[in-house]
Amino acid sequence: xxxxxxxxxxxxxxxxxxxxxxEELRLAEVRDDLVRVRLCASGxxxxxxxxxxxxxxxxxxxxxxxxxxxxxxxxxxGVRDVGVGDRVVLSWxxxxxxxxxxxxxxAWLCQNTRSLxxxxxxxxxxxxxxxxxxxxxxxxxxTFAEATVVPESAAVAIPEEVPFPVAALIGCAVTTGVGxxxxxxxxRPGDSAVVVGCGGVGQAILLGLGLVGADPIVAVDLxxxxxxxxxxxGATHALRSDDPDLGDHVRSITxxxxxxxxxxIGLAVTxxxxxxxxxxxxxxxxxxxxxxxxxxPLDPFxxxxxxxxxxxxxxxxxxxxxxxxxLARLYASGRLPxxxxxGKTTTLDxxxxxxxxxxxxxxxRTIIRYGDGS
Length: 374
What we know:
Elements: E1 7-13, E2 21-27, E3 34-43, H1 46-52, E4 62-63, E5 68-75, E6 87-90, H2 100-103, E7 127-128, E8 134-135, E9 147-151, E10 155-157, H3 164-170, H4 173-184, E11 193-196, H5 200-212, E12 217-221, H6 224-232, E13 237-240, H7 246-254, E14 258-263, H8 268-277, E15 278-286, H9 300-306, E16 309-312, H10 320-332, E17 342-346, H11 351-359, E18 365-369
Parallel strand pairs: 11-12, 11-14, 12-13, 14-15, 15-16, 17-18
Antiparallel strand pairs: 1-2, 1-4, 2-7, 3-5, 3-9, 3-18, 5-6, 6-10, 7-8
């Protein structure tokens, strides 16, 4: 089922430090295995901030946003998994479903995805300017727009019980955070854990630790407000990251050091501290995405002698087609209170303000609502 392109309003990154542009863009034609989605909600994520602040190299114009959910409006003739009218969450990592890693069930390590190039699988773009110039979509999605065109593997159906603001968070923060606990760390009931960084992803990690029954759970952050929120989300203890005796406090709480330490910021200074917070045989999980070219010194003797492990975590080691529905069911059953992660709502008009809130580490996840946000 295909048709002509349509125009949509979108927020466009042009250069670091500049306000986002407000533009009318043309959507790509829905062909082959592509899907057009009318956005109902989009989260404003720290990765978007990395682009606007120049931490990650990106060329404008670029439609930002990669955490979205909405209704399927149109599908290409090769689409089988979703249909017009379906409620879907968008995955910013669209796997090819054919490479070695996809065949092994490790879609988060897909070798052929074009998402990181900000294009569709064939190298074309989801958007174009009024004069026909290609306009890429951030991570292949571009959810700071009224609608977008994505690969079929990036659109995963969800039940009606999941409201769109919650569904949007499943597209990035929730999958990354809960997946870091369940898939990457494979935490078990009674395991001790430290979470360094209590922003959106850190908050999802806390919910994931609560889901598996970890205890104790130590939250670490510079923001007293976020530490208070962390305790509401299941942390049993809260410590400031600038405490010079942080490691001693963690060892006092956990007995020897934590079984798992998660870094959810992406800063060299906090990544470097992780191994010192875990016990012998414990694991440090790097969840936050650092700026490009960041390096961190680690003590190899301590790692080898103590049997400690350092794990990288991309997208919660998740397979969207499998994990999105699981997370949706856990929310619908009341076992995963994802609505507690939703902060204030906004519109495309005030996205720059939401990015500034992220910059200042203020509040919960801001959600952009579109239309009636059904």
